[in-house]
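Long-time lurker, finally posting.

We've been working with Beta-carotene ketolase (Fulvimarina pelagi) and I want a structural starting point before designing mutants. I don't trust myself to interpret raw outputs, so I'm hoping someone here can both generate the structure tokens and explain anything notable. Sequence follows.
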Amino acid sequence: MTLSPTSRLIPASALPRSTPADSPKIRPYQTTIGLTLCAVLLASWFAIHVSAIFFLDINFSTLPLAPLITVFQCWLTVGLFILAHDAMHGSLAPGRTRLNAVIGGFILFVYAGFAWKKIRDAHFAHHDAPGTPADPDFYADDPENFWPWFGTFFSRYFGWRSVAFVSTVVTFYLVILDASVTNVVLFYGLPSLLSSLQLFYFGTYRPHRHEESGTFADAHNTRSSEFGYVASLFSCFHFGYHHEHHLAPWTPWWALPHTRQS
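Top reply, 14 upvotes:
Generated this for you. Predicted structure of Beta-carotene ketolase:
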């Protein structure tokens, strides 16, 4: 597909990565709202993680709950990464660089043993050259097909550090804490894997894939979903409004619908 940019791309390096606390781009009570939602999502994720893995007895009566818990925990896991993503851009707590780094780094470590600086730098590289061979999230060899792109994307980020982290957590749960293998698979393994698919599909593949019909609006090489508020929230915490994110990366996830409407 031939790209037809219609407006000049402003690279991430030219945009504020950690918005000053007195910037007019800051929304009223943005830090309070952001940290409150962060606390709610983190607490919900940890509560379900612990209770489902260590206290839920899978039997005939509780079996119907298992897929519901897995799906909901998958969604919350997606939310964790979105929180870390906001922290990268300084929109979680504007003007508080250290706080963003601490919270974002903690979440990325819990998510899959990721290193804060590595993931943050890769994400900024994505914003610097979206949808090009220089974009670490893009698959220039085949920008239309899902699985080859996902395989490359997954292997690029899920390296030995993540393998060691997940292996350590699983071993600790099974050997030291005597957790059920079934529970660990259903409520830790599956949500983690499914969340990576969900994040990639709605946050990378759909926005940046090449299509036979149509072109991108500009050199950000991305498009936004047409989902309504509820579908957008449950698909990827509004990350499907991806063009809006690239145009204004300082916008927190919960404000993207308003940015799209305006």
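Before you design anything, note these points.
The mean pLDDT is 91.
The radius of gyration is 19 Å.
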